[in-house]
Design a protein that fits this description.
- The protein is of the alpha/beta class.
- The chain has one domain (about 5-210, about 250-275, about 310-330): NAD(P)-binding Rossmann-like Domain (Rossmann fold), CATH 3.40.50.720.
- It has ten helices and 16 strands.
- The strands form five sheets. A seven-stranded parallel β-sheet has the order 6-5-4-7-8-9-14, sandwiched between helices. Strands 1-2-3 form a three-stranded antiparallel β-sheet, with no helix packed on it. The chain has a two-stranded parallel sheet with strand order 10-13.
- Helix 1 crosses helix 7 (about 250-260), helix 2 (about 95-105) runs parallel beside helix 4 (about 125-145) and helix 6 crosses helix 8 (about 280-290).
- The protein binds nicotinamide-adenine-dinucleotide (NAD).
- Nicotinamide-adenine-dinucleotide (NAD) binds near residues 47, 48, 137 and 212.
């Protein structure tokens, strides 16, 4: 049973739970939490990979959900099974008029910002677009949140802001040393949230997420790429096999973001969201091979897939989030891979990004 006190300026309520696990998202560590039930939530970038999972999680919480997306990389197909339960606004974050109109119409209580130009190799060809979308887009959204009295907004930042791991695992006070243009644009926006909170009192919290994976991926990140190749043959061509990444199943990531938004962690602060468990790309590939039924696979390095400045290690220290909310991931890698492969097979052995040309790499080209 949840007992709710008077909401504060965030709409936060003091929540007491005899079990410490009062509801699906009251993880038990925090005393001052937002209750999202019945609230209106805008998910900017909600037609994308993680955003479309967030929409599903918010519907579970009885939120009224508005997706704001221009479908640059997201797709209506990511929302088709729930389209009659949500409101979708075809809008661009770079169009302040459209944005203001959407906020004036829908008057959101809370906002998540998943909008991003995200695929690192695309930034080699169009770096300015990354700054337009990732920085100016977020700036416009923060101003709209201020103008329309949004109670709290969560900006989805990235582990990439840290650059190569100096201390492992990586806590929020890790040195910030981004190594690619995507990462620099994410850091600019991450820090903009801090300054906009300090200078304009905008109630914004920053979540630095680690590699998410699962159904409905929109770019050829490593897991969908490996699945696609192993679907055709046991030979797989990849870049840096020794890189270690911290993989989190997408529903765990989305739930971690909800826990962050609802937590009493102060505005302007950054919070890591990641599993804390790393795998090398080689080990990951072997696990995917097994999950797809291959007795043996042949992993080859394709020089063209090596990044110009690559990162050897990302490993999350999620102590801050865990202590504040009790959040921890619930889906292990093998289980998550199995769910992802099943989704891929039941959706015509295709990913959303295969419908686009830009940004994709095909070895057989
Ligand atoms: N996927 C990961 O593992 C990961 C890791 C770290 C950080 N992130 C961050 O999380 C966020 C979501 O990532 P994702 O993988 O779901 O990406 P995604 O590309 O699937 O989602 C981004 C969404 O933003 C939309 N969009 C792009 N430009 C827009 C604009 N100008 N106006 C409105 N909508 C626009 C796209 O159409 C897409 O639906 C991004 O900000 C990304 O930087 C993702």
């Amino acid at each position: 049973m949840l007992l709710c006190a008077v909401p504060d300026r965030h709409g936060c309520r003091t929540v007491h739970s005899p079990t410490g696990l009062g509801s699906r998202f009251a993880y038990g560590g925090s005393s001052n939490m937002i209750d999202l039930k019945g609230t209106k939530v805008v998910v900017a970038g909600g037609a994308g990979f993680i955003g479309s999972q967030m929409v599903r999680e918010l519907l579970e919480l009885d939120c009224s959900v508005v997706v704001y997306d221009n479908f640059l990389h997201g797709s209506p197909r990511n929302l088709e099974d729930i389209e009659d339960r949500i409101h979708v606004v075809f809008g661009d974050l770079l169009n302040e008029w459209q944005l203001a109109s959407a906020f004036r119409t829908h008057r959101p209580d809370y906002v998540f910002n998943f909008v991003g130009d995200t695929y690192v190799p695309t930034a080699y060809d169009m770096p300015k677009r990354f700054f337009d979308i990732n920085v100016e887009g977020n700036l416009n959204l923060l101003m709209a949140c201020k103008m329309y009295d949004v109670k709290r907004v969560l900006y989805v930042s990235s582990t990439e802001v840290y650059g190569e791991a100096q201390d492992v695992p990586m806590a929020e006070n890790h040195v910030l040393n981004p190594l690619n243009t995507y990462a620099v644009s994410k850091l600019a926006s991450d820090r903009l949230c801090f300054t906009f909170h300090a200078e304009h009192d905008i109630p914004v919290i920053i979540a630095r997420i680690y590699n998410a994976y699962g159904p409905r991926e929109t770019e050829p990140y490593v897991i969908p790429e490996i699945i696609t190749q192993l679907d055709k043959s046991p030979v797989v061509y990849l870049g840096n096999l020794d890189a270690h990444r911290d993989f989190t199943y997408v529903s765990d990531t989305a739930q971690g973001l909800i826990a962050t938004l609802c937590s009493d962690i102060p505005d302007g602060e950054a919070v890591n969201v990641g599993s804390g468990i790393t795998f090398s790309i080689r080990e990951l590939t072997e696990r995917i091979g097994k999950a797809m039924g291959h007795d043996e696979i042949d992993i080859r390095v394709d020089e063209r897939r090596l990044r110009r400045l690559d990162i050897e290690m990302f490993k999350c220290d999620a102590t801050k989030l865990r202590n504040a909310t009790g959040w921890k991931p619930t889906v292990g890698l093998d289980d998550g891979l199995q769910r992802t492969i099943e989704w891929f097979r039941s959706h015509g052995h295709r990913w959303i990004w295969e419908d686009r040309i830009e940004g994709t790499i095909r070895h057989d080209e």
